[in-house]
Amino acid sequence: MPVTVLLVDDEPLVRAGLRAVLEAQPDIEVVGEAADGAAVIPLVRRLRPDVVAMDVRMPLLDGIEATRAVLRTVEDPPKILVITTFENDEYVYEALRAGAAGFLLKRARPAEIVHAVRLVAEGESLLFPASVRQLAAEYGDDGGNRAARAVMERAQLTEREAEVLRLMARGLSNAEIAARLVVGTETVKSHVSAVLAKLGARDRTQAVIAAYESGFVAPG
């Protein structure tokens, strides 16, 4: 089955460019488009895309609020891939905190766009881990977020789960973590699932953000 994508951007040329790049791939299908975040929820419910590629800044409803709305109101929501002009942007970090699984630069090369969509859809690795770390260092609470610290304390991660979370924050995939720890990939998947469940995180990006903001992992 192809990865299905909904494109949300107020610039028609951006949507057309993304559509051309993605539909050139046999395993990706663009199922719809929207010009503003306000139109996302009904389209998501009707089209059931795997990934929503969403502009972070739009006139009526921006990508941050649209991300929150989708994840709050849609059952079994899609992964959100935020599209942005600037990499080191507080809006991007806020979108990640709101629940976006990753972000994509509008100037990205076609191969990077395709890779980002596939990676976010698979959910087994962190997209642009160094950039996420940099964003957390600049815009995160750097261990000062009481709510994040409380969640981390309540999670009571085992020693192995804590080790897996640290490796997730470094951007290692499940296969890379398995090789590092000399265990099977399925074992790593079980540990990752346990970490997400204990932290109440929707995906590994949210778990990593929580790790940074609680001070469990230093973003620097």
UniProtKB/TrEMBL annotation:
Residues 150-215 form the HTH luxR-type domain. Residues 4-121 form the Response regulatory domain. The keyword Thylakoid does not apply. SUPFAM superfamilies: C-terminal effector domain of the bipartite response regulators, CheY-like. Pfam families: GerE, Response_reg. It comes from the Bacteria. Keywords: DNA-binding, Phosphoprotein, Transcription, Transcription regulation. The keyword Phosphoprotein applies. The modification 4-aspartylphosphate is found at residue 55. PANTHER family: TRANSCRIPTIONAL REGULATORY PROTEIN NARL-RELATED, TWO-COMPONENT RESPONSE REGULATOR. This is Response regulator transcription factor. It comes from Streptomyces prunicolor.
